[in-house]
């Protein structure tokens, strides 16, 4: 007698629902499980495509930011003082400073400095073409993290949707099976107990 766990039988058991006790609901559950697995597998190339598109877009934005933003020196107008509510040992505080835009106009505003910075110290800030303060341009790490983050979120969302769909199918099947079991028991219990 052949062993049921022989290599030739294992793959067939993984891809089919067979046997005298197999119900129609077992086949539906298996089909749902298989569909869920296929959707998760399909999510991998979709996530890679999303990551590629987002990475290209982020790189284009980074290139545009590098072309339109300039790092300029800002001269502090006052000593840096930790303000009320700032924790002792903070790495930066806001201090008033002045700087010149790329077009030569003078600007004034709050910049981040170390808590021990003094009046007249110079800090580097980033400005746009009109001299307004802007964040530094996105670097290669930012581009990479944006691409990986969007790809990972896409994969997780598709996987979560597939898993949720499978769980909804299983829940409906569990209700159906419980109802069938109750109907079967209602028919068999009087004969088994001797009550009519």
Secondary structure elements and pairings:
Blueprint: H1 10-15, H2 24-68, E1 70-76, E2 93-100, E3 106-113, E4 122-127, H3 140-193
Antiparallel strand pairs: 1-2, 1-4, 2-3
Helix pairs in contact: 2-3
Q: Can you give keywords for this protein?
A:
196 residues; alpha+beta; four-stranded antiparallel sheet; 4 strands
Summarize the structure.
This protein has 196 residues and is α+β, with helices and mostly antiparallel strands. The chain has three helices and four strands; from the N terminus they run ααββββα. The longest helix has 54 residues, at 140-193.
Architecture overview:
This protein has 196 residues and is an alpha+beta fold. A four-stranded antiparallel beta sheet has the order 3-2-1-4. Helix 2 runs antiparallel to helix 3. The longest helix has 54 residues. The radius of gyration is 33 Å and the shape is elongated. The relative contact order is 0.15. The model has no long low-confidence stretch (mean pLDDT 82).
With helices defined by DSSP (H or I, 4 residues minimum), what is the helix count?
A: 3
Unreliable parts: none
The outline comes out as: elongated
pLDDT averaged over residues: 82
Class based on secondary structure composition and strand pairing: alpha+beta
User: In what range is the share of β-strand residues?
Assistant: 5-15%
State the major sheet: 4 strands, antiparallel
Order of strands in the sheet with most strands: 3-2-1-4
Helix content: 40-55%
What Rg is obtained from the alpha carbons, in whole angstroms?
33 Å
How far the N terminus sits from the C terminus, by CA atoms, comes to 46 Å
Number of strands: 4
* SSE ordering: HHEEEEH
